[in-house]
Design brief:
The complex is a heterodimer of chains A (about 240) and B (about 230). Chain A is mainly alpha-helical. Chain A has 10 helices and no strands. The longest helix of chain A has about 35 residues, at about 10-45. By secondary structure, chain B is an all-alpha fold. Chain B contains 10 helices and no strands. Chain B has helices at about 1-10, 20-55, 55-70, 70-85, 90-120, 120-130, 135-170, 180-185, 190-215, 220-230. The chains are: A mainly alpha (about 240), B mainly alpha (about 230). At the A-B interface, helix 3, helix 4, helix 7, helix 8 and helix 9 of A face helix 3, helix 4, helix 5, helix 7 and helix 8 of B.
């Protein structure tokens, strides 16, 4: 396997780079779309059920079906990586709209009232108070989306898009384990790296939680979290 | 393109025989339901046990997190490759495919069953013990019914994974709607691929809507009344 890897290092690195681009760009696009949508769903309660319903149904469509159907809708070629980006952006939005809306809903009323009393206008209050307070919730949704995107990108190997998934199909068609295992290890590695980066970003963006975290580390007790149990089900995230 | 798609879907030749739409639908649904049933037989009792006793909680979070990072297509091929030439006939891809579907479906069922049992109102459990119920009776008569809606939501997200992954399992040989996509790709028949994509999407959406509807019926009457009252309050 080491031998195979050293003689194919360039190809593998090229696939890894493409895999990263295809997994990360939908994440950024999805977040940019979800924040205004989630805010709308929070602001106008009547929009919440239909928005969650429609995005929920889009979320149920298997990725392979989207990869094949999107070229007709977008007028692109089937091998165009844009199809993968658009498909994964749809999934990311479906996951994050709900997270953003729920995260904004969980901002304590007294915080909003204090900000309003200090003269914050709605837009500035959203950007400087409500969104920062909702960062941990949104970050949790982003982590699920990031990890599931890495697996979803590899499915696109079935239609031939350049990324690590090609190592899987290559291994299968040649009955050869080395590329398969290298591909799986690199996918898991990429998922863990993205997960760690988002976790790090959440920490940097929530400096006021640092004190609570340190106390928690020192005493082993959870401070400031409302309840210890699983209040919200951990999202599983779709894998294929 | 749309007219070619409609032509493909309405062609009577595509509605009969071993490669016809009804046969492929039965395969896709059959394999999916089989995997869901096996996963439920593993995940529900285990989740109930962990939720009731509080033992083995680490399994719940650990299992879900570890599996989430694995790419499904890679996993599918990894399990199939060593078995495909060793098992006779169709079993070579059937056994590994179903096994991977089960492995993907257990975590969501396990987590939500656990969360459902663990999250039952303490007062309800205390009342049940106070009435003289044994631990087992509390589990079957109080915790299990209260957890049922959450168990069902676990089954729903498991089925979502299964239906999608069964589609890509066509690559290692599994029947179902995924066949149209991959067979179409092999001969550059784009209308067949598109028809497969549309059929798969329709199946996934119908399954989701049916399960979502069924989930509403699983809320125990006592809890439904309570929820309605607290909403109107």
């Amino acid at each position: 396997m080491i031998e195979w890897l050293s003689s194919n290092a360039d190809t593998v690195a090229y696939y890894f780079a493409w895999h990263t681009v295809l997994a990360v760009s939908p994440l950024v696009l999805g977040l940019a779309i979800s924040i205004p949508l989630g805010w709308l769903a929070r602001r106008h309660r009547s929009l919440y059920p239909p928005m969650i319903g429609v995005t929920g149904l889009l979320y149920t469509i298997p990725s392979l079906a989207l990869f094949v159907a999107l070229p007709v809708i977008l007028g692109t070629k089937i091998l165009d990586p844009i199809n993968v980006v658009v498909a994964l952006t749809i999934y990311t939005v479906a996951l994050l709209v709900r997270t953003v809306a729920d995260g904004l809903a969980a901002v304590p009323d007294d915080v909003i009232q204090a900000a309003t009393a200090m003269g914050y206008r709605p837009l500035r209050r959203l950007l400087q108070v409500e969104l920062p307070v909702a960062v941990p919730t949104i970050g949790a949704g982003m982590r699920v989306a990031a990890v599931s995107n890495v697996s979803l990108v590899s499915v696109a190997a079935l239609i031939g898009t350049t990324q690590l998934g090609l190592l899987f199909t290559d291994g299968f068609s040649r009955n050869f384990m080395a590329p398969l295992i290298v591909g799986i290890v690199l996918c898991v590695l990429l998922a863990l790296i993205l997960d760690a980066i988002i976790m790090g970003l959440v920490r940097v963006l929530t400096p006021w939680q640092r004190a609570a975290r340190e106390q928690q580390r020192a005493t082993g007790a959870v401070v400031g979290s409302p309840k210890n149990g699983l209040r919200r089900l951990p999202e599983v995230g779709r894998a294929s | 393109m749309i007219s070619e798609l409609v032509a493909w879907l309405t062609d009577p030749a595509h509605w009969s025989g071993p490669e016809g739409i009804p046969q492929r639908l039965l395969e896709h649904l059959g394999y999916s339901l089989l995997a869901l049933a096996i996963a439920a037989l593993i995940g529900i009792p285990l989740g109930m046990y962990i939720g009731h006793t509080g033992r083995g909680t680490f399994l719940v979070a650990g299992l879900a997190n570890a599996l989430r990072a694995l790419p499904t297509l890679g996993l599918l091929i990894l399990v199939t490759l060593p078995l495909i030439s060793r098992l006779p006939g169709n079993l070579g891809f059937l056994v590994p495919s179903i096994a991977v579907l089960v492995v993907l479906a257990v975590p969501p069922i396990l987590t939500s069953t656990y969360a459902g049992v663990q999250g039952v109102d303490l007062a309800a459990k205390d009342a049940a013990y106070g009435m003289g119920m044994t631990g087992q009776e509390v589990l079957t008569k109080v915790e299990a019914p209260c957890a049922l809606p959450l168990v069902f939501s676990g089954l729903r997200s498991a089925m979502l994974q299964i239906v999608a992954t069964a589609t890509i399992a066509a690559y290692v040989g599994l029947g179902g709607f995924g066949r149209y996509v991959l067979d179409g790709l092999a001969v550059r028949d784009y209308s067949q691929m598109l028809a497969g994509a549309v059929l798969v999407a329709a199946l996934a959406v119908v399954v989701e809507v049916v399960l979502a509807g069924a989930q509403r019926l699983t809320v125990p009457r006592g809890l439904a009344v309570g929820a309605r009252e607290s909403r109107s309050r």
